[in-house]
Design a protein that fits this description.
Blueprint: H1 2-7, H2 15-26, H3 31-39, H4 47-76, H5 98-112, E1 116-117, E2 123-125, H6 126-131, E3 149-151, E4 161-163, H7 168-176, E5 189-198, E6 210-220, H8 225-240, E7 246-253, E8 256-265, E9 282-291, H9 293-298, E10 307-314, H10 315-323, H11 330-333, H12 336-339
Parallel strand pairs: 1-5
Antiparallel strand pairs: 2-4, 3-4, 5-6, 6-10, 7-8, 8-9, 9-10
This protein binds phenylalanine.
Length: 346
């Protein structure tokens, strides 16, 4: 009982003194163990009561010493204190990659126009990348996109496995899965396919062996070129500003007929002509066209009943234009000085 009363008055000024207290009371030869030795001599009928007292004493001393120790560490540690419970500063906030920012923006705009996302494999077969897209087996158009082959079949190109060179392969997969046996659509197709694509090109400031695309596809009854033009105009205005103008120039793609390339009025000079648009007033941003009936038939859709349009753009290209990135390699170097510049855009 006497010891119990002392406990609360135990004091220590520093860690050393705390340690002394611990040795005095709690160590092997400390006072508590001395008490335990005497325990043997306690008459049996008092053992229970005394035992409880000793346990209480031990608990109180341990608590007191721990409290003293804690008080000492907080006091002693000055500015260099390591408080493991505190939040570490400064917090290094990551930034979204510029290509992700722009891809999301593109997805956002088309989502609002009713397009839904579609996804597919990056390692693809020839069938979906080329054959279904109306590239004949010996057609020179196959050379348009320098392809990385994973495996090449000796006498059947459609069995080749390759890294997809455009995300049109995803469109092929969507079309295959959206019709009945007699070529009727199970519903209108309105998808955008964002993703990474690969082409066998030397890596320079202006070309890379991979880049990112967003392609779009709309198939239904009576889809016309006018629909395509309006959707692309809306996109250009949302992406580059409300007074952006577009122009379509005739072009060629195996999977669209007619095909076009779309330019937007230069958003630097507003179409007057400046160094940025090489004094033409226009900058090219995407390819598009009406889905070739052969593509529809290849994918099992009745081309007499349905028509559609498709478009495809390079995300790097759009990002370069919007943010004036001059070297494509920056996108895959992960230099944080470059990436941090996009913090505000996110
Ligand atoms: N697939 C084309 C490419 O990779 C882009 C495109 C898509 C063009 C759809 C027209 C229509 O270059």
């Amino acid at each position: 009982n006497e010891l119990l009363q002392q406990v609360d008055s135990l004091e220590a000024k520093n860690a050393e003194e705390v340690e002394k207290l611990r040795l005095k009371y709690l160590s092997k030869n400390g006072e508590l163990n001395e008490l335990m030795k005497d325990f043997r001599n306690v008459p049996a009928e008092q053992k229970k009561e005394v035992g409880m007292k000793i346990n209480e004493l031990k608990q109180r001393i341990t608590d007191r010493i721990n409290a003293l120790r804690e008080a000492c560490t907080t006091q002693e540690s000055g500015d260099e204190a390591i408080d493991l419970t505190r939040t570490p500063y400064p917090i290094q906030l990551g930034t979204r990659h510029p290509l992700t920012i722009v891809t999301n923006e593109i997805i956002d705009i088309f989502s609002r126009m009713g397009f839904v996302l579609a996804d597919g494999p990056e390692v693809e077969d020839d069938l979906h990348v080329f054959t279904r897209m109306n590239f004949a087996a010996d057609h020179p158009a196959r050379d348009m996109q320098d392809t990385f082959f994973v495996s090449q079949h000796p006498n059947d190109v459609t069995k080749n496995i390759l890294l997809r060179s455009h995300t049109s392969s995803v469109q092929a997969r969507v079309m295959e899965n959206m019709h009945t046996e007699d070529g009727k659509l199970t519903g209108p197709i309105r998808v955008i396919c964002p993703g990474r694509v690969y082409r066998n090109e030397a890596i320079t400031a202006r070309a890379h062996c991979f880049f990112h695309q967003v392609e779009g596809l709309y198939i239904d009854k009576n889809v016309s070129f006018t629909d395509l033009k309006q959707v692309l105009l809306s996109f250009a205005r949302e992406m580059f500003g409300a007074d952006t103008k577009i122009r379509l120039r005739p072009s060629y793609f195996p999977f669209t007929e007619p095909s076009a390339e779309m330019d937007i009025s230069c958003f630097i000079c507003g179409g007057e002509g400046c160094g940025f648009c090489k004094h033409t007033g226009w900058v090219e941003i995407l390819g598009c066209g009406m889905v070739d009936p052969n593509v529809l038939e290849q994918c099992g859709i009745d081309s007499k009943e349905y028509s559609g349009y498709a478009f495809g753009m390079g995300v790097e290209r759009i990002t370069n234009l919007k943010y004036r990135v001059s070297d494509l390699r920056m996108f895959s170097e992960n230099d944080t000085r470059f990436l941090e510049e996009f913090q505000a855009a996110d």
